[in-house]
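JOB MANIFEST
job_type = single_chain_structure
chain_count = 1
residues = 40
[input]
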Amino acid sequence: MPMRLEKYEYPINRYAMEVKRQLDVLDKTLATSGPILCGR
């Protein structure tokens, strides 16, 4: 039984838009925050 792309198009697009939104929020947060230190 072949998979129909239309069946999965909405969830794929929704997931992609949510990832883009979260990356935009992260980018804005990092751009406005002070220096970030890693390690000890």
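[summary]
The chain has a mean pLDDT of 85.
The first helix runs from residue 5 to 32.
exit_status = 0
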